[in-house]
Records
---
Amino acid sequence: MKLTQWLEARLARTSPPWTVGEVRIYPGYLLTHWEDAPEDSRLRQLSGWEAFLDLVRFDAAGRFRPLRGAPGLRKGWRRGPLSIADLFTDLRVLYPGAMAILAAWETERLGPTPFSMTARRQTGIYEVTRQLPDEDLPALVEQICVRGCLRHPLWHLPAPQPDKQEGLTLLCPEACHYFLHRARARAAA
Amino acid sequence: MKAGGAFMRSSVGSALVLAGHGSMFSAESALPIYQHAAALRKIGVFEAVYECFWKEEPSYRNVLYEVEEESVYLVPDFLSHGYFTREILPREFGLVGPITRWNSCEIRYCEPPGRHPRMAEAILEQALRALGERNCRDVALLLVAHGTDRNKNSAQTAWEQAERIRRSGRFAECGVAFLEQDPCISGWRDLVDSRDLVVVPFFLSEGKHSYTDIPRMMGLVRHPRDPEFRNPQATEGGRGIYYAGSAGMAPIVDQVILAQVEAFDEAYPMA
């Protein structure tokens, strides 16, 4: 099954609106920040990939958002109505890889990678992450992943209970570079 | 890119994965990868075009979950071979050679665009844009790369491209300088004889090296982000310096990426 078909079928299993991270999808595939109402005439209709990419890459203060899963997506915009293919593309821009990873997880094709394995294969500046004490890991995950990111760190925490009413879960199968960067600082200290 | 022919046929049902570096601090680092991907999507040669990054999302490790095509051209969006193309990318993608099977797809690992002979066209494109109406025949082109004593490939690629430009005869001369190895850009006055020169940063994206480091090391009064910046800049010796955009930002780089895919197919024809 193609990923767009999977998404269409996945959405059809639950009632709209559907929540993904900080966005909501309304029927006809309208996309807004979850705190905005799609009928609000003050919302800016976003068209074109450059404008949308800018929206997701910078916060309201104009600061770069290297971690798309981090809370802080700007409000006040609307996308759509979109085709299912364009919706999939938009979600890919918002949360890169997230829908494909969720599809892989739900079809049992995804194996999370424990942090020890991620650290073991690092070279260069991240090689030092191998020295991160095991007892430091939970606090780092709490700080960076639980409080600082909307993705669920499958590589460290038990898998979330499937609650289909809560929308499409953002999953993280392996510690990302943002985490490695912070882990490196901790390990070096 | 050749129209029709083996390349076009082999690309049906195939995907292009552009692997860039990205940054946790600078939004500009990933910009050329997004631009190249968008332009190549528009051309429609591939079923799909995906971006992925070492330091942004999606990661090298995760991008293949998105790929649905059976044949994947993996192009490292770098200017030369080095640590990332020789070690990081093969490791993160689990490559075993030029061609790797991953689940149901075949990964075809191409050369970085910076190594292709057509990259010289990107350098020329940026130089000519900076020169505007100025005739380039009496101007020197100075290509400025990063360089490092730890890896000779970076410098080698710059020298090769400079030689191509020299052979083209378009400019009075063509020199090479580096940020972190000899000949250093701080000695630019002795590297080219022509009075006026156009400087082309041999980097994939704009950033600290092109906006700050090179102008500072050359002793330029204005850097390209200065609102008062204009080409040419006059120096104390009366020499005029035209400062160009980074080579990797030239629109023609899209075609160079395609040329690397084509070169791969020529070296490793589809079964």
Note: Chain A has two domains: 3-105, 112-188.
---
Amino acid sequence: MKFSATITAMICLALSAQVYAQDAAPAPAGASEFHATNEFSVVSNELNGPGKSASSLTKGLNYLEVLNLYGSGVKGAWTYNYTAGGKATDDLRNDSKKLSLTNIQGRATDNVHTVTVGDVFESFSQYALATSLKGASYRFLKEGTKLPEVTGVFGWAYPRWDSVWKDPVTRTVNRQAAGLRVKENFNGDLWAGLSAVSAKDTGRITATDALYDAKNYTLDFSYLPMPGLTAAGEYSLSDSELSPAAGTAKTSSKGSAARLELVGDADPSRVSVEYENVEPDFFSALGSASPDRRKVKARWRYKYTKRVTFTSGLLWYRNNLDGDKTAGTTYNWKPELSAAIKKPFSGRPYSFADLSYKFDRKYGGGSSGADHYLNANYRDRFGGLDSDTNLGYTLYRTKTAVRDAKEVNFNTSLNSRHQVRSVVLKPSVNLGTWYSKDELSDETDKLYEYSLGLGFEAPDTNLTGDLRCGANMLRKSAAGTDDSDKFFAALNTYWRPKLLAKLNDSTVFLRAGFNDYSFSTTNRNFREKSVTIGLNTSF
Amino acid sequence: MKKLLIIAAAILISAGTADAKWWIFGKSGGEVGLKYLYVNKVSADETGPKIKVFKETLGADGLIKITGKASVGKSSVGSVRISLDDKGTWTDVKFAENGTFEHAFKPEQGKTYIMLVEVTDTAGKTNKPEETRKELSLSDENIQAKVKETLDIMFTAYSREDLTRFLANVGENFAGDKAILERAVKRDFDALSAINLRYTLNNVAAGAQGRIFVSVTYNRMVLVNKTGTTSTDSGATEFVFDMNEGQLALYSMKQPLMFGLSDPEVGTGVVLGGGEGLVLDDSGDLSTGLVVTKSYTNPDQSFGYNIETETFEDCDATAPNCGGHLLFMPGIPYIAADDVPTSAFIGPIPGKTVSTATQADAQAAAVNQQTTLTAGSTYGLKYGADYYAVEVTSLSGSGGGPYSITIKTKAF
């Protein structure tokens, strides 16, 4: 492993930040604060066996360095805070970049005007803007007045900072975004917001990248007509233009999305009713929506007694709202009912049972299925032993011969806690099995699993940890498919040495793992050994 | 929209006129109480008894703001008082004529504030302050550490196939719908085993409404029970979390998906440059199948493509005898399932790409012998007993040709 100049620079920066933090500590309260966290770890992975190419680990010795800085202060009538973070690694599975800026943000406010630059996450509403931008925002909010809250934002919806400076490895389509939101709180019971957001894509990386030029105009509101009842909703219009690939004609589309939710919440009930209609041509580049969906959802949680709570729900949705889908419309019904019972056996004070039934009905559009999910969970304490047992039965049924199967899963875990002088030991056992009968192929799959664990805490030495080992065994009846076994062992330990107390809050950690994968086809077999040692410091 | 407005109006009007006892689930409109109470813009109804606030979600002034509205029926509000030390001391709070009030204080780290709100009407009748009791504290964790802790819990729960523990970190208002995600994750657990997930944080940004944006780079390996094969992938994806009782609850996630691979629609949005990701089809198998991209220029307007040999062929207007699976005639324009065998069918899959289309999509779409050919469209193809997805990513040319085309194909 080569410790590059960059990683050395990051460690130096972390250490100098610590010195600064110590210098800054005696400053008067409220004047300024500075904190940093730093985690440096080295991992050694060893892969063996003919099938080792299937491993998701990177062979050899690699490092990961993560540094984050935080600060705040006051200057005149303005208060400000800032954050910055970076990551360095030579394992391309950790990150495709060896050195990257993870986050940087500065914010200042005089309690009326707020300016944010860098990572800006102005969450307008679900359909309008629900993603972070690299850019800047401004908010005007004068509390105690009738003036509306006004927020403006401008930036680029890049997933990471490397993309901003067009790094060839992480370069993406350039999605430039701008938005304006005006929100008025009318009387405490009712507020409403109007948002306008635009997103324009440029700079294809490949000829087949789709580019959008989209605008969304959104109204959202919340209204409290009486104690315990809330109505909230949103209506959004989109106007978008799509260029599917280089050299192809652009297509324009307009669509709308609307949702309304009513929530009644006061003991013993919580009832919610939700309606959503998202047209197929609705597009939100910066918000969250599932186009071509009309949905109705109702949910009722009812505390029948102090010990028994019933929850029932019904979800219905369909697609093909414009009727253009050649295959037709797909409908979904998903009712469910569950009961949570505290102390189902009056003589067992720690007992708890949870029973649930869920049903999935999907039909139309060339598909037809009816799946049933039954689940029973029971938790209890026997002496010093906590138990948690789960039994599930699933029936997958399709009329289109896609999946007809019966599946049963069972898991149980036993945990206890023992104190030996000042050391706390937490042994645990987990057992599980899964059985699947595929009725289309008349084949059976069985999975058995077990694990043993031992957690430990030694407060006198500031040492905590967890050791776990176990195995999964998959047995398949279908010809030409492999049975497989996985044996695993993992150790995680965390030590907060007193010697590092000067660094305020430091933890040395060691993680070791061993995985052995065996298949019927022996040339797929491989083993992974992984050891990670690191230091996490906050100051 | 008209229907929506009618439904909303009907519900709200009936809510206002119906007997209040029914709608407010036991609360009486005439009692002294609180119509609403917010702590840093988060409704107290939506939180548990403990509220943990993170520094990053405070305003730049570092204050916790308690806002609410006193409700006293036909009477008038006489006073509003707040205690932050479990009734030890009370602070009178200024309130407006309609009962709205606001109180702000600067929290100290490591200290727990037991908050109670007392409302008294002008007749001296008070609410039950115990019903407003909340424990407030300022977390000494930074938001990035909290994000890491939450993702660790979710990734571990998913890897161990612990549905209950996984769902504990998903918000009730999950944008892709929590009920749909729950069933999709349950299907994932039935389809996969030996799940091994790792991630590193790329970006964390705290924003308005207490929401947290998170971008990660991930790396995973799964064993598919149906086939007994392993599959690995890596890429970048994004999550948004809500703050709830000092815990983070998943609000939305984008494709490529980390969870709920059995229903791609639980992802609301696509990460730019995020990678293809894994998708489970309705049969419980991975439908990632290798996506093959091919480009071709044909001198005229009739050509075919063989998905298995990944080759185009100039059909010279002898369309019926053109080999392969697909026949393109962009001058008309149409794309057809080649007619040998006659059980071959094709149809468009709206709103999907070759990466996100599932076998069920292809099965549902493949009902015609031919359909309109347009660039940017994805098609489902049934050929014999096999299903394919075909995406036409670019198409240029006019009249009798020549035509240039780029397609992506995937076999299920």
Note: The two ends of chain B are 39 Å apart (CA to CA).
---
Amino acid sequence: MEPSPITKKGLFSWILTRYRGLQLLLLLLIVSTILFRVLPLELQKRIINQAIAYKKMDILFLYCGLYLGAVVLAGVLKYVINLLQSYIGQRILKELRERIYDHILTLPISFFRRTPPGMVIASLTSELSAIGEFLGGALATPLINIFTLLTFAGYLFYLHPLLAILSFSIYPVEIIIIPFLQRRYNRLNRDRIDVTRSMSNVIGEAIAGIHEIHGNAGYRLENRKLGRFNEALFTIRNQMNTLKFLIKFLNNFFQSLGPFILFLLGGYLTLQGRFDLGALVAFLSAYEKLYDPWKELMDYYQDLQDSHVRYHRIMDYFDIQPEFLLAPPDGRDPLRLEGDIRIQDMSFIIDGEIRVLDQVSLALRSGEQLGLVGFSGSGKSTLAMVIGQLYSYTTGHVYLDGQELKTLSKQDISFNIGYIAQYPFIFDGSIEENLLYACESLVPGDGGSAVPLPGRDEIVKVLELVGLSDDILRIGLNTVLSPDGTEDFTQRVIRMRSTFFQRWGSELADSVNFFDLNRFQEHISLGENIAFGHAHVDEYQLEALPGSRFFREFLLESDLLDPLLGLGEEIAVQTIGLLKDLQDDPYFFELSPISQAEYEEYQEIVSHLTKAKSVGLKQRELDALLRLALRFTPAVHTMAALPENLERDIVKARRRFMEKMLQHDPGAISFYRPTDYVFTQSILDNILFGRTKADRPQAIEKVREKVEELLRQENLTAETLEIGLKFQVGSKGDRLSGGQKQKIAIARALLKNPRILILDEATASLDNASQARIQQLFSSELKGKCTLISVVHRLELVRDFDLIAVMRAGKIVEMGQYQDLMDRKGLFYELAHGA
Amino acid sequence: MSLHTEPKKECSISPGEGRCEMSANLEIFRNVSAFSGIPIDRLKLLAYLSKRVNFKAGEFVFHHGDLDDKAYLILSGKVQVIREFPDHSILLHEFKEGDFFGGLVLLSDIKRLFSIKALTDLECLTISRKSFQKVLMQFPEIALKLLNPTIKRMVQMEERLLQAQSDQCIYG
């Protein structure tokens, strides 16, 4: 453990302890740059007093040369200093962000129940970035400016002490007034951060609940919520700006008082002959040069205050300690437990009085199976989570192999316990990454590998055990491959295609529309039916076809243009009428060839149509209608009918199109030929070389079974599984079904071979067959190998368990085996019959 | 369009001039008593979102315990309602052309309580829970109109089930 927690560190401790070498270099550069800042002033004086006054050309050249050199050097140094400064700042920021994130992730789960994600996100991104900007210059900026200020002040003093003292007299006034204003500014700034956080929470919540908002059309309501904070932010920002610019104004005002005194007094002295003109010019220049460092110091002061406020706002918020040790103390290896569990008078109390768990006691020997049942809210899930070290208990004891659970570290637990939640979280990434998540977490950060990651065979075995292989094979079969590096695989798929057709072609004739040059395909669009291939050139992509001259001319020659335009018109009129008032919900557009975004465009076309019966349509509008007709897929789009003539004419045109295309631009389109792999379609569709009929729900299943059989025969199962494992599951695993997510979570836990397995209604969203399979797994494969704790709703799932604990209001009220509890006719009996 | 007057083969129920499947579905819905109280433009939306499915004699439409999410209206054919057990099955009821079944899943995410097996070749019109609920969100008033016949159906089913149980008791 860290000796002093990160949240207790001060802002400057980051700067003073990091990159000292670089910071020293920075300091040296700063000192040297000051020399080059003062030198031009002295040169200026000498150019006027010596070179110009005595008309000495050679001295003029010398001083001018020196002047140029000094200015260039000062510029270059400033550039290097800036680079170095921001580099240091960003390095510290990077470390700061990682360290805080590390800390946040280890905080107790209860912390996250009350902390909205928007708040954590804002803290780690925008708030922290602003600090980073400041950090780089935190030491350099004040130093460089104070040095400069002192140097110029000294130079002024050297030129004329009295004048210098008089012109400095303004600064003390500023030093008193400005901090007073700044303190008020800081208070507002703290309020601003709080309001901004609340506002990000509102936005975060709205995005998480976007379904509900769309469902209720709650747009205005949500906007009003945001509006409250937005209004507050507006007010605070305005007040802050008032103060900020007031400070600026005062600064500028006092600054310009200086030259006033100088002109008056310096002019008087010069007129009297007690001060020479060159010195006055130098004095004025030097005084003006005072302005920059002074202003920078003022800005720095404001940034410092701002960063302090931000930094402490962040650190105070996360100033909580993790409930458990993260790693074993004294650097010992994580424990390997047997899986004995003993709970003694354990209570879990929240808010000081609510006993979520009340005096729970139970004992479980290694390899035994415990079922936790009870009405919802009885504490059964909480008990499972306490054993899984997700919550800490308040009083009493929980012993794992005789060791108090509270004293064990997170690593000890993760090596020995697999916890599967009711709604497991699946991370964005591939299925494989998700499966290995638990195992990869066991690999220590320093790269040493305490546990080897499971090999392919082991993964495949576990997938089979939890019934996930079929899902993954299916996902693999639905993958659209890219042409590079898959040559060998696609060649084998094409061979499978012909085997498949020979073997099952006639059997499946009424379930599948096989691709056939001479047959119309109801399951692909009319455009695809005509082109019968997929384009490599933009001009012939389905969406671009209406704009292609070659294609339009072809349609005209084939007498297809008019019927297609007529069809497009019919689709547009029907769809626009149907979806009127429903444009807000994208769902209604899923079965329509008009997309949600295009609704208004087509609405306008339809209104033109009713006015001037297609005569007055512009070319652009005709193209749009043709596009609809080409998108039309008879098996999907039901709002218009396709005349049989058109079907026949399209098939006739198809062959001619292919011939013409091969002359016009060979290679632009890969036609659907039995010998070619189609890279725009899934592996399954490539094997099938056709489409299952949409009205035959059983057909897909039948086809899959046969394809899978063939895959096994051709030894392609492993490769397809491999492709499926690479499937990207999307944010939160949204591209998977609920059952698939749960099976992945079970496999994920099993892969690390835990001694204790905890399931919190982990099979609830599985269908009966999958549930039975998992049940079977517990009663045979895993029986005796690991201690099992299963929270269930359906009582028959724990029929064979060694022990069943029935819970009510945080207490275990009955405990025993299934039949005992039934015979007792108590709460368990009631649960069995009431539910 | 006027040149092409041949009817589309899918529109077999009400063959009209180039009638599309959606209109045919609408015509069917209008003749179903369960939908009779729903205004025609709402019904048209349901017709647009519904899909036709076909089963061969002997195939199962769904099994007891499945998470199937569709309600079915039989266009042609007959089905058996079965409760399957590991070693035997009980025949509960039969549905025929014009019957509407499985409507309960439109309202809630539940597992099937029984299995449906096609007795003859079967054609059904289906509507999914998501489609139904989307329409409901737009036009909530149709909920009651659909709930009524579904609940009546549930009562009938339960009646029959109870009858079957008491019969079993009598005959041992």
Note: Chain A has a mean pLDDT of 86.
